[in-house]
Amino acid sequence: MSPAPSPRTDLLGRPLSEVEQRLVASYEGLKALLEQDLPPAAAANVREALASMWQVMNDLALLSDRPDV
Amino acid sequence: MPASPYWNPKTETLPRAELRRLQGVRLREVVERAWHASPFHRRLLEQAGVRPEQVRGMDDLERLPFTTREAWMECQRRTPMFGDMVTRPVERAVRYHTTSGTTGRTPLRVLDGRVDWKWIAECWCYGFHGFGIRPGDRVFFAFSYGTFIGFWGAHYAAEKMGCLVLPGGNMTTENRVALIHEMGATVVCSTPTYALRLAQEARERGINLPGGSVKRLILSGEPAGSIPATKRLIEEQWGAKAADTAGMTEIGTIMMFECEKQPGGTHVIEDQVIEEVIDPETGRPVAYGERGERVVTSFGRGMIPLIRYRTRDLVVKVPHTRCTCGRTFDLYDGGILGRVDDMLLVRGTNVYPRAVEAIVREYPAVDEFQIHLTTVEGIRDEIAVRCEVRPGHEAEWAQVRERLAADLAAAIEGLSIPVVEVARGTLPRFELKAKRVKDERVVKGASR
């Protein structure tokens, strides 16, 4: 399954910068990876990475989302 | 890119109107999540006649019901062990923690998921970075770890930021001082009381802290971190700058921190929490500059949404313009000022322990103190301040005692408060939250 299309604005309605768009894409990419059948080593570390990337989404007010990891 | 004085410049400098809009978006999300996943919150919202779709932004905040510690405890009693406030099964949690239990009450039990735990560290990063801590700093934690949440989040924040973490759990005070010295710690995290205890130990071991490596102290766990006289004493004894922070187990992390400008107050981390100040009697909001009770709504903890939680902490909120650091986060003037239920009624006079400490700490001759209350002749309150004299100050003690008693009486409506010397080592020392009130009255505040 491919990542969901990224939003074009942040939670304040401001257009996303190029870096912000890449951050959102990375987050969505990690989420999509977790839908794959991953070995334990990969699954646990992707979950950790996703939880860290959520902090970026949250701090920069980029997305309304909360992964269930 | 120039080094930023802010951990998160985008939101820390957001114009107030936009910050409020962001809080509104997040409030809507947390209410929605709580409604669907937390039976406790759904019950409260239903009782208040509020549905999530009615919460559109910050203007709707006051429609939401308060959450109290008592209700939380009750839900834990009814649905052991964690209550039905929790939004996900325990199998999805990665951390278990409790309140400190220093009040003697049954501690609250909390769970955190993976995202929550990283958010808890993230909030500490705002405070650490804001006070000038940077990668490469060596951060010592004078903290016993265990289930008390204390500095756990700070530990992970330091690690995340690229600092060298020096965990001081399960160590004697002597060994802690030795490690700080040997490892060249540049930052020490501790309660204000324990920072003084460490300094005392260093003196006794002949370690010159003011000439040493420690440049910053991060204080938490007691209001004393913002009492000017206590802070000054700590800074003098360590030769370092001290910053106050305050947090609580109920949100798992800090919600306020002191920045490098040290404006005499702590910035509220307003992109991660909503902090209201209300009249504790009426529940109505109070204006900037007025003392009231903190009420917190936290956005980051997924397993335990916290909505309009009555903290019982007393604060005075002032606008962000009080500080010149450029943050748009409002401040609590003087940090946490005490607890709503801290006040002692003595012969009809209100006595706040924080006010007593602010005066006592003006006297370097006092090493440790305790407020002692008794009932005399079965009816009359008596209050005294028991003091241990700092070594080297014995000769001036008689004069100090008189001046201190006069200062206390002048500050506390003329109430006579004798100052009594006790032998060295008599009074308790604390690592966690200090308890300097010993109330042995049979009848409290009954007689003038």
What does this structure look like?
The complex is a heterodimer of chains A (69) and B (448). By secondary structure, chain A is mainly α. Chain A has a domain at 18-59. Chain A is built from 2 helices and no strands. The radius of gyration of chain A is 12 Å and the shape is elongated. The mean pLDDT of chain A is 93. Chain B is of the alpha/beta class. Chain B folds into 2 domains: 1-340, 3-Layer(aba) Sandwich (Rossmann fold); 344-439, GMP Synthetase, Chain A, domain 3. Chain B is built from 11 helices and 20 strands. Chain B has helices spanning 9-12, 16-37, 39-47, 69-78, 114-130, 152-161, 173-182, 192-204, 228-238, 353-360, 397-411, and strands spanning 95-98, 109-112, 138-141, 164-167, 187-190, 216-219, 241-248, 253-257, 265-268, 273-278, 291-298, 306-318, 331-333, 338-339, 344-346, 349-351, 366-376, 380-389, 419-421, 437-439. In chain B, the strands form 4 sheets. In chain B, strands 3, 4, 5, 6, 7, 8, 9, 10, 11, 12, 13 and 14 form a 12-stranded mixed sheet that branches. A 4-stranded mixed sheet of chain B has the order 19-18-17-20. In chain B, strands 1-2 form a two-stranded antiparallel sheet. In chain B, helix 6 (152-161) links the parallel strand 3 and strand 4 (164-167). The model of chain B has no long low-confidence stretch (mean pLDDT 93). Classes of the chains: A mainly alpha (69), B alpha/beta (448). Chain A binds chain B through residues 11-12, 47-48, 51-52, 54-55, 58-61, 64, 66-69, and chain B through 8, 10-11, 14, 18, 21-22, 25-26, 29, 33, 88, 92, 113-115, 117-119, 122, 271, 299-300, 302.
